[in-house]
Amino acid sequence: MVDEMRKESAVTDLQDRMLEQLSKVIDPELRIDLVNLGLIYGLSMDDNVVTVTMTLTTMGCPISAVLEQMIQSSLEKLPEVDEVKINIVWEPAWSPDKMSQVARMTLGYYN
């Protein structure tokens, strides 16, 4: 039981640190980080390979390759991460409702 709790704590710590790194990845067009934009849907790790499940604000986003490189660079700074894979999904579709309150206020989006 104690070992399971330690393992869960370590996983939570790593996920928190991954989210902290991703909060430093700023969308060059919107000037808000990917976490506050609500673009990150999930993080998983297997054998030191992180898979980021995310979406983009629009299909055919012209800066998707730039964002992917920024995400990889950011997460690879963590000592536990050897490789980053990015899984872009379109379901559920992104909408401004997925943004944090901070992002909404920054962009002047009020609903």
UniProtKB/TrEMBL annotation:
InterPro entries per UniProt: Fe-S_Maturation_MIP18, FSCA_dom_sf, MIP18-like
Q: Which residues form the MIP18 family-like domain?
A: 18-85
Reading the lineage from the top rank, the first entry is Bacteria
Q: Which PANTHER family match?
A: FE-S PROTEIN MATURATION AUXILIARY FACTOR YITW (PTHR42831)
Record-given protein name: Metal-sulfur cluster assembly factor
Annotated organism of origin: Companilactobacillus keshanensis
